[in-house]
Amino acid sequence: MVYDTENIFSKILKGEIPCNKVYEDEFALAFHDINPQAPVHTLVIPKGEYVSMAEFSVGAPDELLTGFFRAIGETARVLGLDEDGYRLIANTGKNAHQDVPHLHFHILSGKPLGPMLSNF
Ligand code: AMP
Within 6 Å (CB) of ligand 1, which residues are found? Predict the structure, then answer.
C-alpha cells in the first residue's frame, strides 16, 4: 500500500499537529491516545513510513525493527506498567479495523482488561 504522508500520525511525527508525548527516541514516538479505551491508552509509532505490521516486518531495517520494539517496552516502563502488566495491540488492515495508515502499537492498561476478544 502506498504510504499517505498526510495521515494524522505522519503529521504528528512532522510536528504539524501536537500530541501528548510520553516517550521519544530516534526510532519511535509514543503519545497518549486522543480517545482512550482504558485508563492508560498510549500509542507507539515508528519513525518511518510504514502503513502496517505487514509492511514494517518486511521492509524496515534491522536497526529500526529493534529500536522500535525496545521503544515499546521503554514506553511501558515510563508509564509504570511493568509490575501490573499491559496489553499490546497492533491493528493491521481491514479485518483488524485499522483506522490510521501508519503502524502503531496500542499500549492498554490501568485496570484488569478482561478477556482479549469479547465477541468472537
Ligand atoms: P487504529 O484503529 O488501530 O488505527 O487506532 C487509531 C487510534 O488513533 C485510535 O485509538 C484513535 O483514537 C487514535 N487517534 C486518532 N487521532 C489521534 C490523535 N490526533 N492523537 C492521538 N490519538 C489519535
Answer: 8, 19, 31, 33-35, 43, 91, 97-100
Active-site residue list: 104
Q: Is the pTM of this model over 0.85?
A: yes
* Ligand 1 pocket mutation pick from 29, 99, 107, 108 by most atoms within 8 angstroms of CB: 99
| DSSP category for residue 89 | E
For each of the domains in the chain, give its residue range(s) and CATH number, in order of start. 8-109 (3.30.428.10)
What confidence tens digit (pLDDT) does each residue in 83-97 have? 999 999 999 999 999
Cell numbers that stand for 8 in this block: 494524522
